[in-house]
């Protein structure tokens, strides 16, 4: 009997290894796959039958007999027919959760390497034109057209060019890069090999954060096993070292070069002077992994789905306090409310949704009154937010939005690379302002952190910088501090070198604008204005 | 450590971009990167000591002192907070007897912050000696505490 059990880090965290062992002990042929992407049914076991793969989940190690005779209470039927999966458009994640991630036979059997073969049959310019025509935009968050980036590198005269994959997926609420690298690593390798052919690069790097040990392990093995298929293009994995800012592309390049991960001023663009000063394509995992589909199926097939100028699909990640969290790949244009309420099923706690943060620690908080927003780069920008890497973190009504705004500043202070002043100093001043606001506002029901248990960094170097001004010299009234906060955010937004300092105002100001009552405002702003 | 560095360099090369992989390898071998090894690293890669020191201190991963015998890396990021992470962090600090970011006096356990493990729909999450753990509640915390007491 053949059974399929995920070895995705999330599945393993929920006990998939024990489940797999139990089935192996019972004499089953256990195939370890990536995750299908719905974590409320993990650990998921799929049993191969004449009628297809029948899923059971969640399953524990004691459930082997009941699963094998088909009587287990969590029988789900065919996984791809569940509502969560039936509504998806899986272009990039078509194989994830289905195949053994490291099996070259499995990959080839499900359209693997067709994109690379199609690309290699064409001139580099034709490949770049196809990517342009697909409308693919950078999935890391900036949304810059991938084809135009490639064109710049193709046109750059140089001997050595590089393909760099940004797999430093540090945003909370996002895990699509990790799932793809663990569940379908050859797809990323194929995308990078296509990029290499398109721009004339010989070597590529995949920079993976150290917090993703499973992805590092899987990618290294996959690179080894597929080396003969992508040759003469060569690849290597570089492991990050716990610096969030290295997700910024120029900081990432410095990190690969063996330096502190500090942001570079642009220009010059990495496309012209990138890694080791050479023309470099640097793309997110999801951008590169979308390319094999585009080359194999054609630009039109990809561009046919989407919304406005956002073409193709986005692997949306539902996270935080959500009942059915996981990965949901769908064409742009689905609304935020459909994602959170219909797909995600509301909160896991059963309490009302109060806020969702879209796009990681640098993304805006939106209240349910804005759930009509379509998932689209432009629509989100207009609403004062960003799609980012398409992670949606759901919060219920117990959240203290002033605390979340403070956390955004605290995180920026901890992770700032230190190169530019608005980010390095501004974030620390922001924490101080938030502390004054939280001290001044009416006592909140939300629990305050126990000062004795705060992270030690606050007692260390940060403590010296904090509260450096005597309170007697500051107007600590709520009005004064709130306008100071807006002023500070303005400086950080327009004065910072990169998105870390530049986008930290998004969560802070959106929390202030949409949830003023948490910041001590006597009445919601709308009513006060009347 | 001089021999370790020499052997590593012989295998992987001595260009500047090898610095992070070398530091990872040393920490893997010894548990931390001691200040005393900085001159040796600098010599091997033809860098200044300040340069090497700057890199080691920039990245959160590199430890300059030996870690606890057990390391619990608990996620502090937004998605885990949305699922009660702050309360679990407070309980973990109390139960393990060590503040976040510290190693306990007896060296038995360190509680370290981590900002996102990419398990964001099943938090609060942690890495316990490298093993991922999800949906941490009071019972799970107790099991972790017993595990790291051994």
UniProtKB/TrEMBL annotation, chain A:
InterPro entries: NADH-UbQ_OxRdtase_51kDa_CS (IPR001949), Nuo51_FMN-bd (IPR011538), Nuo51_FMN-bd_sf (IPR037225), Nuop51_4Fe4S-bd (IPR019575), Nuop51_4Fe4S-bd_sf (IPR037207)
Pfam families: Complex1_51K, NADH_4Fe-4S
SMART domains for the chain: NADH_4Fe-4S
Keywords per UniProt: 4Fe-4S, Iron, Iron-sulfur, Metal-binding
Gene3D superfamilies cross-referenced by the UniProt entry: 3.10.20.600, 6.10.250.1450, NADH-ubiquinone oxidoreductase 51kDa subunit, NADH-ubiquinone oxidoreductase 51kDa subunit, iron-sulphur binding domain
PROSITE patterns recorded: COMPLEX1_51K_1, COMPLEX1_51K_2
Positions of the NADH-ubiquinone oxidoreductase 51kDa subunit iron-sulphur binding domain: 402-447
Cofactor: FMN
CDD domains the UniProt entry points to: TRX_Fd_FDH_beta
Protein family per UniProt: Belongs to the complex I 51 kDa subunit family.
Protein name from the UniProt record: NADH-ubiquinone oxidoreductase-F iron-sulfur binding region domain-containing protein
Organism: Sphingobium cyanobacteriorum
UniProtKB/TrEMBL annotation, chain B:
Cofactor(s) needed for function: [2Fe-2S] cluster
Keyword terms: 2Fe-2S, Iron, Iron-sulfur, Metal-binding
UniProt KW Lipid metabolism keyword: no
Highest rank taxon of the organism: Bacteria
CDD domains linked to this entry: TRX_Fd_NuoE_FDH_gamma
Alphabetized InterPro entries for the sequence: NADP_DH_HndA-like, NuoE-like, NuoE_N, Thioredoxin-like_sf
Family recorded in the similarity comment: Belongs to the complex I 24 kDa subunit family.
PANTHER family reported in the protein's UniProt record: BIFURCATING [FEFE] HYDROGENASE GAMMA SUBUNIT, NADH-QUINONE OXIDOREDUCTASE, E SUBUNIT
Name of the protein: NAD(P)H-dependent oxidoreductase subunit E
Lineage, opening ranks: Bacteria, Pseudomonadati, Pseudomonadota, Alphaproteobacteria, Sphingomonadales
């Amino acid at each position: 009997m053949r059974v399929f059990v995920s070895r995705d880090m999330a599945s393993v965290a929920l006990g998939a290894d024990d489940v797999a062992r139990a089935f192996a002990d019972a004499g089953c042929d256990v195939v370890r796959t990536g995750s299908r992407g719905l974590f409320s049914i993990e650990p998921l076991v799929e049993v191969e039958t004449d009628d297809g793969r029948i899923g059971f989940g969640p399953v524990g190690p004691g459930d082997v007999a009941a699963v094998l005779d088909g009587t287990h209470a969590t029988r789900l039927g065919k996984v791809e027919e569940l509502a969560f999966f039936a509504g998806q458009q899986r272009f990039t994640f078509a194989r994830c959760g289905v195949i053994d991630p490291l099996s070259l036979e499995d990959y080839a059997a499900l359209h693997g390497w067709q994109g690379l073969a199609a690309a290699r049959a064409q001139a580099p310019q034709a490949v770049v034109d196809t990517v342009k025509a697909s409308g693919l935009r950078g999935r890391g968050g900036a949304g810059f057209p991938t084809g135009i980036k490639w064109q710049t590198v193709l046109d750059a005269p140089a001997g050595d060019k590089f393909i760099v994959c940004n797999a430093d997926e540090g945003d909370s609420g996002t895990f699509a890069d990790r799932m793809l690298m663990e569940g379908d690593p050859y797809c990323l390798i194929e995308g990078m090999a296509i990029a290499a052919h398109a721009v004339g690069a010989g070597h590529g790097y995949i920079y993976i954060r150290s917090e993703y040990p499973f992805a590092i392990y899987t990618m290294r093995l996959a690179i080894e096993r597929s080396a003969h298929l992508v040759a003469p293009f060569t690849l290597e994995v570089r492991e990050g070292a716990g610096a969030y800012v290295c997700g910024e592309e120029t900081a990432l390049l410095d990190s690969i070069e063996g330096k502190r991960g500090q942001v570079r001023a642009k220009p010059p663009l990495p496309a012209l002077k990138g890694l080791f000063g050479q023309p470099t394509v640097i793309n997110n995992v999801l951008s590169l992994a979308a390319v094999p589909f585009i080359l194999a199926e054609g630009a039109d097939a990809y561009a046919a789905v989407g919304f406005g100028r956002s073409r193709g699909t986005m692997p949306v990640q539902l996270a935080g306090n959500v009942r059915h969290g996981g990965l949901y790949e769908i064409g742009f244009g689905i609304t935020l409310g459909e994602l959170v309420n219909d797909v995600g099923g509301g909160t896991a706690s059963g309490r009302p949704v109060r806020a969702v943060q879209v796009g990681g620690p640098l993304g805006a908080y939106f209240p349910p009154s804005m759930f009509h927003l379509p998932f689209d780069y432009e629509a989100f920008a207009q609403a004062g937010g960003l799609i980012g890497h398409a992670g949606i973190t759901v919060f219920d009504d117990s959240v203290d939005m002033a605390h979340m705004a403070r956390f955004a500043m605290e995180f920026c202070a901890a992770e700032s690379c230190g190169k530019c002043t608005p980010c390095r100093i501004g974030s620390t001043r922001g924490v101080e302002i938030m502390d004054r606001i939280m001290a001044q506002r009416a006592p909140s029901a939300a629990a305050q952190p126990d000062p004795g248990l705060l992270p030690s960094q606050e007692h260390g170097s940060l403590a010296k910088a904090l509260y450096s001004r005597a309170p007697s010299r500051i107007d600590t009234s709520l009005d004064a501090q709130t306008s100071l906060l807006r002023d500070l955010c303005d400086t950080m937004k327009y004065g910072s070198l990169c998105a870390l300092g530049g986008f930290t105002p998004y969560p802070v100001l959106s929390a202030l604008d949409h949830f003023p009552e948490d910041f001590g405002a006597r009445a919601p702003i709308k009513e006060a204005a009347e | 450590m001089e021999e370790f560095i020499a052997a590593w360099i012989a295998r992987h090369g001595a260009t500047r971009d090898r610095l992070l992989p070398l530091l990872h390898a040393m920490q893997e071998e010894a548990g931390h990167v001691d200040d005393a090894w900085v001159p040796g690293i600098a010599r091997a890669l033809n860098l200044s000591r300040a340069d090497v020191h700057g890199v080691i201190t920039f990245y959160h991963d590199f430890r300059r002192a030996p870690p606890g015998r057990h390391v619990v890396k608990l996620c502090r990021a937004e998605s885990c907070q949305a699922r009660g992470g702050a309360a679990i962090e407070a309980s973990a600090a109390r139960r393990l007897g060590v503040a976040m970011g510290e190693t306990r006096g007896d060296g038995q356990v360190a509680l370290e912050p981590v900002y996102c493990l990419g398990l964001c729909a099943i938090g609060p999450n942690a890495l316990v000696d490298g093993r991922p753990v999800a949906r941490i509640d009071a019972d799970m915390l107790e099991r972790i505490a017993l595990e790291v007491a051994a």
